[in-house]
Design brief:
The complex is a heterodimer. Chain A is 37% helix and 15% strand. By secondary structure, chain A is of the alpha/beta class. Chain B is an alpha/beta fold. Chain B folds into three domains: 184 residues, Substrate Binding Domain Of Dnak, Chain:A, Domain 2, CATH 1.20.1270; 150 residues, Rossmann fold (3-Layer(aba) Sandwich), CATH 3.40.50; 224 residues, Rossmann fold (3-Layer(aba) Sandwich), CATH 3.40.50.2030. In chain B, 49% of the residues lie in helices and 10% in strands. Chain B is globular, with a radius of gyration of 24 Å. In chain B, 60% of the residues are buried. The chains are: A alpha/beta, B alpha/beta. Chains A and B meet through α4, β6 and α11 of A and α17 and α20 of B.
């Protein structure tokens, strides 16, 4: 059969299924029954992205099917093939959304099904930083369970996000392979229609980060084609529906690699046939133009960003280092070149194999670096990376920072031969790799001797941390001469620019002023550029001519001006990766803040995903602004509108996270004690009336302020 | 970023109209006026039934006078005229090729001409069974030049290049008795056959027309193309610009026009010479701009990125700008009108070849041995002429488009390598193109070639057809004035992908090519023959089975007929927008529009309605797909 005919037939089948499912649902629930995926502000995301129309009930869903039918042209031209591919995806989305009707939970672990918006935003930063260099979609039954595991593992070890559909899921489960969003191996579902959830991820990325207007088909396709590094591996035997989905994937720019040598012809760079599935990984990477940054680290277990979210439970644990119980710390120290012997790794104290299984110990590691361009200001920048470095080790979990760390090593890692010096290998390799412009030599000392740890914690680490805190507390927007731009996200969000100041870190929470400074030092032509602040327009607003010029330049003219301290007047834009979003709450003259992890309702009548969908993509939406968690306690937080005393509501968890520092700031600025007690949360109010009543009772200062609009 | 937009034929015409106003001021003649004077054309001539071969005539065939004095009928007369037309074209191309072979004979490491692509020379030598091991590349070049020159007059055997064709094609040629022997012999045979009292049988005349065409495309032209590549470099993708707006008002403008790259390459070389640039500045200009007209332009654009001022019917326009210091010509397609026209301006009309000598020109004889001196003298002369400009007459229409050109067969393969997967595919083949065609992503290909002809609104057929074809996922390879029409319109800008169907658009994006590929000058249609052969061999089918057709919608010259004959004889159906002068003979029509299919599996189709011509090509391509089961 001709390729286009296969696509057309597959599209017809998927469409018929969708129509049938929709009709059945209408018969059962009636036309007015609500439909939608959980925790997304994008309605049926693929349909919304393609058409600009949101679907809320079965009647509209039925109408959507009529639209989908118009895409199903049947000319033997690629245009028809592509349209039918899109129609197949949209039909699959209809099928999938109907599974969620009436509050059903069609997918249970290990199956993921629909991704909520928070997960997509969470993937934003690693995608732009290339920590997730690509997205592999694996469909069907591998030649063997081992082959399935090998393929998945090959991608996982490169940091590639793996989504699985169909038989291969059972195959890797059979082999006890660990899956889940945290380890970036995600079983989507058994039916081929569940593949639409990954399409939904790609298309929402375009809406969230790319500021593609829903319904702008061309812009959408261009975005996915140029920016989303996804690809498909489909095992034989292919069938019509899978090929029709493949046509959709190819339309969006995602090549398909298959071992079915007979079913379809090949299409260069798009539909690639190769019998030996052990080669799927390099074939796919080359086809999608994905380059893996190789950090070859000589350790007995894998090292990849995919393991960053891996959790090691007590039962799986060989040994634990716990800073909350015993003395632990991690530290970077600048030394003279003569004091550092490059790649020297010393373990001072007993190694892991002398510890009892499941026991708790002290650990301290000091990374000593030397380099002509090294500055002590970079020490905390490197140090903050340790969390990610150590977490990327397969079978090792790391939490916390400074002297409040916890490190767990799994039994599997230990069995594979992982020992204390391997932590040093990782730290050495990553520091040298990531900071080669400033680090000429690097050595690592790992202390497992409890007495040494106690001594060094108090004599070396804590004094260093204190010194840094002193330095940080003097770092204010006023005390520095320059700010930095950060356009790290432009690979994804082409018109967004962050202006990073000492008191306002990047909205993703990942780039502080010191980070930006170091990044600039490492790569002067890179994403962080110096912005002078010599031409103030209005210091209260944080408006500067130089800042505007920079923003104009780095956004390629998309943005004219921003203020640093106002959310009402030219607020800073967001890429979509923001940790938090704040929005004005008109009844109380205040603002509410919601964080990405918060899944519930806010008093604005919108969830985080809904709030987030109003900003992002590099556009200015006065009254709404994305920002990092740490910015909440900053004296510069919406300073132009009066500052933090405007904050009237936060999810409880977020409130607890920021309480200490926020209270400190409130005390300093307004002399208010325990300010966070005056701030509402979801346990107090999820609607404005209850909230205002609560604020009134507490005498919240916002009530007495000028209205913001 | 400015929005990409094609330049329309209307815009071309408005620019021309403005230039004709300048012409009117100085009393210049132009082809537009001469066409009027020549219309209506002689019907006997148009139908090919006027015989002037002996002095008993001329004889003209009418219903009342169905035979000439010797008794030859309309079929014999039209057939003879057709064969002579072919012989004229074949001789012209082949003689161009011969010049190149002679130039190859002069190459030396410190001479005017060098071997720029030694690998290609070695590859051809190996193809011809010449020992290359341990041989100095220049000795090899001289040896190859002699062997190539022997192809023109060898007493026995057939053309060496035929071995590049698929076996099936070679067998067809053999069976049809049309394998070309020595290149010159086929022209001589054609002249002999058409002498008074020789052949008057259409079938025999057409057979020789095909053979004479093949001696061009698979003989003389191929020598011209291949050895030009050896000396001047095999073209690879390069960016340039096209249309009159490439001329720079402040600079000394030198236009190179004609066909043989030996001259134009040298002119370009010296126009870049700092000494001469300084001289131009001394003369009051800011620099020197060389731009091209006609196929010479194609040659230097493909190899050097020299901008293309215009095609055949633009040649008078470059002078009408009033900013052309010199128009330097060699051979073929040069209007004698340029002589008188140049006298209306300060322009120097410089002829250089004994082949093309014209009144009202400065003749500077150009030879391979003295090429450097000649070129230098010409550039100097142009610089000195800058001060003679009449500022009130200067107007350069500011129309130009970006173009990526330089797609030799070698370059196309290299570009296709970029879409292969190193774990799956072999490189250096046309398989990616085959796969695109098999899967239906591309429907097929059209080789569009040929001239301009005032019988067709200039460039409208080329551009109209190209737009239609690319919308239908048909990729184009172009040469000659057709290629320049595309470049001037903007179709060679990679952004033209947005005018394509989804399939061709995706191919353009993935392979990073424009949808219409510039393969060179008219001699370079030999490249297309090699491309078609390799495509058939990579596909595993016959050339005639490929969803590929040829098209010359605005052709006019004898060369075009020779080309048409070898393209058809190679198994590629060829679509014409201008009728060959044979319509006075039903037998000739039957042969060319159908009968030859029995010999070579392809024939001609003529359709003057350009839109229909496009439909017919697409229809044929789809028929071929169905036959292949794709």
């Amino acid at each position: 059969m001709l390729l286009f005919d296969i696509v057309f037939n597959g599209n017809d089948s998927m469409y018929e299924e969708a129509v049938k499912a929709c009709d059945e649902a209408i018969a059962k629930f009636g036309e007015d029954k609500a439909v939608g995926f959980p925790e997304t502000a994008y309605s049926l995301p693929c349909y919304y992205a393609e058409t600009g129309e949101k679907i809320s009930n079965l009647k509209e869903l039925k109408e959507a099917l009529a639209y989908i039918k118009t895409l199903m042209t049947r000319e033997r031209r690629l245009d028809s093939g592509f349209k039918s591919g899109v129609a197949t995806a949209l039909s699959a989305e209809v099928i999938e959304v109907l599974k969620y009707i009436d509050g059903a939970q069609p997918y249970e672990l290990p199956y993921e099904g629909h991704f909520n918006d928070a997960k997509i935003r969470e993937l934003g930063v690693p995608l732009v930083t290339n920590d997730i260099p690509g997205v592999a979609v694996i469909i069907g039954k591998a030649p063997s369970s081992q082959a399935a595991v090998d393929l998945v593992k090959s991608y996982q070890s490169q940091g590639i996000f793996v989504a699985m559909v169909g038989e291969c899921i059972k195959q890797i489960k059979e082999m006890d392979y660990k899956t889940g969003f945290g380890v970036r191996v995600v079983p989507m579902g058994e039916d081929i229609s569940s593949v639409v959830h990954i399409v939904s991820l790609a298309l929402r990325a375009a809406l969230i980060f790319g500021n593609v207007k829903p319904g702008d088909k061309e812009g959408l396709q261009k975005y996915t084609f140029e920016r989303i590094n996804a690809f498909v591996n489909a095992f034989q035997p292919l069938d019509e529906k899978t090929v029709a989905c493949g046509a959709g994937a190819i339309y969006y720019g995602f090549p398909v690699v298959t071992n079915d040598m007979e079913y379809t012809p090949s299409v260069p760079k798009s539909l690639i046939k190769f019998e030996d599935v052990t080669q799927f990984n390099p074939i796919s990477l080359e086809a999608r133009g994905i380059k893996i940054k190789i950090t070859n680290i000589d350790i007995p277990v894998a090292f990849a960003t995919a393991f960053e979210g891996e959790i090691i439970r007590r039962g799986d644990m060989q040994v634990e280092f716990d800073g909350s119980r015993v003395d632990c710390f991690e530290l970077v120290q600048t030394r003279e070149a003569s004091e550092v012997e490059d790649h020297k790794i010393e373990v001072i104290g007993p190694d892991i194999d002398s510890f009892e299984v499941g026991s708790k110990h002290s650990i301290g590691y000091v990374v000593e670096v030397a380099g002509k361009n090294m500055q002590s200001d970079f020490e905390p920048v490197f140090e903050r990376k340790f969390h990610s470095y150590i977490n990327c080790i397969e079978g090792v979990m790391h939490t916390g920072q400074r002297d409040m760390i916890r490190v767990r090593i799994s039994k599997d890692a230990f069995a594979a031969g992982f020992r204390a010096k391997d932590i040093g290998e990782v730290l050495y390799a990553k520091i040298k790799n990531d900071f080669d412009a400033v680090v000429d030599k690097c050595q690592v000392k790992i202390y497992t001797d409890a007495e040494e740890c106690t001594k060094l914690r108090h004599e070396l680490a804590i004094p260093s941390f204190d010194k840094r805190d002193d330095r940080l507390s003097t770092l204010t927007d006023e005390s520095v001469d320059v700010y930095y731009s950060c356009i790290l996200c432009q690979a994804f969000s082409p018109s967004h620019v962050c202006v990073v100041t000492p008191e306002r870190l990047g909205l993703c929470g990942a780039v502080s002023w010191l980070d930006a400074k170091a990044t600039n030092e490492l790569d002067p032509a890179g994403p962080c550029q110096v912005i002078t602040k010599e031409k103030p327009i209005d210091e209260n607003l944080g408006a500067y001519e130089d800042v505007n010029e920079a923003v104009r330049k780095f956004s390629q003219g998309a943005l004219e001006q921003v203020t640093l301290y106002s959310i009402m007047q030219d607020p800073m834009t967001s890429c979509g990766c923001f940790e938090c979003i704040c929005g004005i709450e008109p009844f109380s003259n205040g603002v509410i803040i919601a964080n990405r992890e918060y899944a519930g309702m806010t008093p604005l009548g919108m969830t985080f995903p809904e709030l987030a969908s109003m900003t992002g993509g590099g556009v200015q939406t006065p009254g709404f602004m994305g920002h990092g968690k740490h910015f909440i306690s900053s004296k510069k937080f919406m300073k132009a509108e009066g500052g933090i005393e405007r904050i009237v509501w936060m999810p409880k968890e977020l409130k607890e996270t920021v309480a200490e520092r926020l209270n400190e700031t409130a005390k300093e600025l307004y002399g208010i004690d325990n300010f966070t007690d005056m701030i509402g949360d979801e346990t107090i109010a999820e609607d404005p009336e209850t909230l205002v009543a609560f604020l009134t009772e507490k005498g919240h200062p916002a009530l007495g302020l000028e209205p913001m609009m | 970023m400015s929005e990409f937009k094609l330049t329309t034929v209307e815009e071309f015409e408005a620019a021309t109209a403005r230039l004709l106003e300048t012409g009117a001021k100085v009393g210049a003649d132009a082809w537009q006026f001469r066409v009027k004077n020549q219309t209506p054309h002689c019907k006997f001539g148009e139908q090919g039934i006027c015989c002037r071969i002996c002095s008993m005539g001329p004889c003209r065939i009418t219903p009342k006078a169905p035979r000439g004095i010797c008794g030859c009928d309309a079929h014999g007369i039209a057939g003879r005229n057709f064969l002579r037309f072919t012989a004229g074209g074949s001789a012209t191309h082949s003689d161009h090729g011969r010049e190149i072979c002679h130039t190859l004979h002069t190459v030396s490491p410190d001479g005017n001409y060098k071997v720029k692509d030694p690998e290609k020379l070695i590859r051809i030598a190996q193809e011809w069974g010449v020992e290359t091991e341990g041989k100095d590349i220049y000795d090899l070049a001289h040896e190859m030049s002699e062997l190539a020159l022997l192809e023109y007059g060898k007493p026995f055997g057939i053309q060496r290049w035929l071995a590049r064709a698929p076996k099936h094609t070679q067998e067809l040629w053999h069976a049809a008795g049309i394998e070309p022997r020595a290149i010159d012999r086929e022209v001589s045979t054609a002249m002999h056959m058409t002498h008074m009292g020789c052949s008057s049988k259409p079938e025999a005349l057409v057979r020789q027309a095909l053979r004479c065409g093949l001696s061009d495309g698979w003989g003389g032209s191929m020598c011209g193309t291949e050895f030009s590549d050896v000396m001047f470099g095999t073209p690879k993708p390069i960016d340039t610009e096209a249309n009159l707006g490439v001329m720079v008002e402040e600079n000394v403008n030198i236009i190179v026009h004609g066909h043989d790259p030996s001259l134009s390459e040298m002119i370009c070389e010296y126009a870049d010479d700092p000494e001469l640039i300084a001289y131009a500045k001394e003369m009051g200009a800011k620099g020197i701009t060389v731009s091209g007209v006609c196929c010479t332009s194609n040659e230097v654009a493909m190899r050097r990125g020299v901008p293309m001022a215009g095609n055949f019917l633009q040649q008078e326009n470059v002078v009408l700008t009033g900013a052309c210091e010199a128009i330097v010509v060699d051979v073929q397609c040069i209007f004698p009108a340029l002589g008188p026209l140049s006298k209306c301006f300060h322009t120097k009309f410089i002829t250089t070849s004994e082949i093309a000598q014209m009144p009202d020109s400065d003749f500077i004889k150009f030879s391979a041995e003295t090429a450097g001196e000649n070129a230098k003298a010409i550039v100097k002369l142009a610089c000195e002429n800058f001060k003679n400009r009449k500022p009130e007459l200067v107007h350069i229409p500011q129309l130009k488009q970006k173009a990526t050109v330089g797609y030799s067969t070698e370059a196309i393969k290299k570009q296709l390598d970029t879409v292969t997967n190193s774990f799956v595919d072999k490189t250096g083949t046309l398989m990616p193109l085959v796969d695109c065609v098999k899967s239906g992503v591309l429907r097929g290909a059209v080789a569009m070639v040929g001239c301009n002809n005032p019988r067709v609104r200039a460039d409208s057929a080329h551009i109209g057809l190209m737009k239609k074809l690319i919308e239908n996922d048909v990729i184009l390879v172009l040469s000659g004035c057709s290629a320049q029409a595309a470049a001037r319109a903007g179709l060679m800008d990679k952004e033209a992908k947005n005018l394509c169907g989804a399939g061709l658009k995706r191919v353009c994006e993935l392979a990073d090519i424009p949808p219409v590929l510039h393969m060179g000058s008219c001699v370079d249609i030999s490249r297309m023959m090699v491309l078609a052969s390799d495509l058939a061999m990579d596909y595993g089918c016959n050339i005639s089975e490929l969803p590929l057709v040829g098209c010359a919608p605005e052709w006019m010259s004898e060369k075009a007929v020779s080309i048409g004959n070898y393209v058809v004889a190679t198994g590629i159906d060829t679509y014409l927008g201008v009728e060959p002068q044979i319509s006075g003979s039903s037998q000739m029509e039957d042969l060319l529009y159908g009968g030859v299919e029995d010999w070579v599996e392809a024939s001609y189709t003529v359709e003057k309605d350009i839109d229909k011509l496009g439909d017919l090509m697409i229809e044929r391509i789809e028929e071929k797909r169905t036959a292949l089961g794709i």
